[in-house]
Amino acid sequence: MSWLAPFYLAGLLAVAAPIVFHLWRRTPRGRRVFSTLMFLRPSPPRMTRLSKIEHWLLLLLRALALLLIALAFARPIWRIPATTPVAAEDGEFLAILIDTSASMQREGAWSSAMQKLRERVGALPKSVIPAFFSYDDRFASQMSFTETNELDAGSRGPLLLERANGLKPTGRGSRLGEALVRTAQSLQEAQAGRALPRPQRIWLISDMQAGSDLSALRAFDWPADIPVEWIPATAKSSSNAGLQLVASSLDASDSRIRLRVTNDLASTGQQFTLHWGDSSTDDPPVLTVLVPPGQGRVVALPNPPTPEMGRSVILRGDDQPFDNLLWLPRRTPRPCQVLYIGDDKADDPAGQRFYLERALATNPLYRVTMIGPQDTATAGTAPDLIVATQSPQEPGLANLLARHPRVFLSPTTAETAMDLWAAVAGARPTVNEARVRDYVLWTEIDFESAWFAPFAEAQFADFSGIHFWKHREWSGDLPEGARALVQFDSGDPAVIEWQREQRRSWVFLSGWHPADSQLARSTKFVPLIWRILEHAMGDRPTTSTASVGDTLPIPPEATAARIRKPDESTTNWTAGSTESLIAEEPGIYQVEAGTEIVTLAVNLPPEESRTDPLAPEQLEAFGVKWSSKAAVPTAAPVAEQLRQQQLVELEHQQQLWRWALVAAIGLLVLESLLAGWRQSAAMSAVDS
Amino acid sequence: MSASVPATSPSSSDPIGFVDPRVLLQIQSLELRARHVVEGFATGLNRSPYHGFSVEFTEYRQYVPGDDPRYLDWRLLARSDRFYVKRFEDETNLRCLMLLDASRSMDFGTVGHTKFDYARTLAATFGRFLIAQRDAVGLARFSGDVDEYLPPRYRAGHWRRLLVLLDQPCTGRSTDLCQPLERVAERLSKRGLLVVISDFLAPLDRIETSLGCLTARGQEVLVFQVLDPTEITFDFQQPELFEDLETGKQLYVDPAMLRRDYQSRMTAHLAEVEKICGRLGVTYRRLTTAEPLGDSLGELLRSRIRSRDRRNRGTNRRSG
Fold first, then answer.
1. Which value does ipTM take for this structure?
2. Of the candidates A294, A382, A397, A419, which has an alpha carbon nearest to the alpha carbon of residue A341?
3. How far is CA A234 from CA A106, A162, A548, in A?
């Protein structure tokens, strides 16, 4: 018999209590009124001692119940494990996690990390089983527990240091949360299959900068038995300022690039200058910015004197240069040709073209050229999109309509609608001019469609302010492959999308010009037309900036591409190849897919500029257990710990305490019944 | 006008006044009780020591049939042909006010009657005795303050009112000796006799000042401290929960453990009361409810007469 909590056996002394209470009893029970208590003082109740115990059975039951309760609390175990299964060489699982994110490029940070790693690994006892992991925005296993287990104890440390020497800080972000979760999972995998778990620990060698991503810890229940010890990698200076791109102004006419200059809380300087990338140190600064520590300022760069100079911008006045160079995106709108078939003039505000042309001209991604039917012969290439408001007179145009992959129809009359549809789809539908009392509105908008998806947010989804007072009414069912993207509140389709093979056509059954509706003069018109154009052009990637570690955008229909890296080296990519399309270093990348060239400015992730140290309490809030003990526990305490764990398991299996408690409750019930019976017997004797 | 009192044994003259108080207090009528006691001890006193004392004319009253013709003013009759009777001061030769403690602590008794029963019998006896001598008698019942006040009078029906007031049960919660004494001192304008009947089971902080205030105004003060025998001996046997009659406060007490302590504190308290009375020249008499009433009263009155005689003799010698 053994005990899991033997100190509770002291509760056995409580058995003396009923014996004492049986031997002693309090006699006085009377009450007396007296003239005054002014000459009296309280005296403790006098107990009179009985020379013998009167109720042996009751005493026995009470003493036994107390005895069993005390034994239950002491958690009895029938037998002890015969031997301690832990041999002296069974040591600790130690996972070493090192930070290789961009912020480790700060002066002194990486060398500090490596020096501490070498010192710690050199002092490790041979019984410890180490594994080595690194992280930036990816988690990488440099030396797993499986690999370490196969090595002899003497070669683990040197191999680990050799792997560490092959590492260096990258330009990527820092996903500390994910790295900790993956490391903890590696430890759990290493423990899997073991009858008795070994002690385990994580060494985190990092600068723990405030820009680290901890979100993965939210969904992870941190194991209580994995302590983390933070080994700080300290940079020589804690001062840092950073540069990052900000979204361009909503005003399309303002083409200036906007930057945010941030300054860390621990920074010493607050005055910085911005210089063009190719300028020498003697050149006057482009801008001077005053940013107090802990704050940020958004500035707009003037247009560069030469395009080459405008490739990058440098921040000067900062102690840490790793994040002071920012590559700037180049905005080169793609050319795009739109064929407009209609008899209205470009400068006629009563027609549809007037509005369409102005809306398309402001699109920042495409440089739209609108041509008329007469220009098709002179235009070198086929138009990218056809917009038709009148039925084409020339047979050539009708042919073009019949085979063009992207046709957008906005007929102004029912007759035109039938003609245009017949030209595009081959079959002539029945379309009538609708009779509208006052006006109709758009309802049942399909916000999952490509056209209306950008309007899906509640603040943009309200189209009820746009009145339509004339529209065409589609009679009968829609043809196969067609669906209504929007309906009028009369129930008639307002916008029909029709798809057959690679061809797509859209029909507006009410025009946007003032004769038909308010659409052209509403705030929704320009974004809708932009969206129609971008969708018609195949939803090409619009981004021109990326961070290190991002995947380079490839046009969706491209099957092969050539990637030119910042160091002028090139890589060829073909669809289905496993070639990495990740931007690994900052600079200008060019992706050439066919005739299309996408230029990307790749910079360090902006979070890496936030180098203020992260408070360890923030990780504690996610349940991470910090360990302050630097020393690895020696074998003897480990053995004792494991023996204790084994006892706990045995006790959990046997659960003798439950039986002891049940027996105690039974005895107490019996005692109550017996005492009640005795009392009633005594009362009846008195009555009689 | 003073009279000497023979030192006869009261017990041999009239046994009624010296009956066991338990028997006496079983008599329901307070008046009857008082009369029994008075007859007991008064017969031992040969005649009233105050009779004919300071006879002075005060007023005329029309003669009514039944009046003693000795008191007719013959000169006035001769002058005016009217029948007038002279009234004399001897009807009011002594003004006595009795102060009766009616606090709840007086409602305690272990000998078959309470201290209050004993005290009001004492007051009635004293009142009866004085009225028999045509003295003015008043009564003030007090607890925390003066609860009821009947000024000293000698007139028809006054004795009845006095008895009605004495018959009321004690209801006061607390005992405060000082305030009633001060209030009474404010009301008394003439000199007289003040009889205080109480158990004096209250703090004695200001009692000396209050009593001194009365003696300084020329009042003659008589103090009867009435106690139950167990209040002195505290001879309870069983440990019990003792409850204060006045405050309701409860205290667990083991008498065997506390008896000696109690007795010493009680003795000190009684000695303090006696000492205060001695300092102020106040006649003090402690009575236990087991003692016969007539015995106590007779002895007290005789001692007062003796002391008066001594004073008078001293005065005569100085004047001679």
1. 0.75
2. A397
3. 9, 22, 23
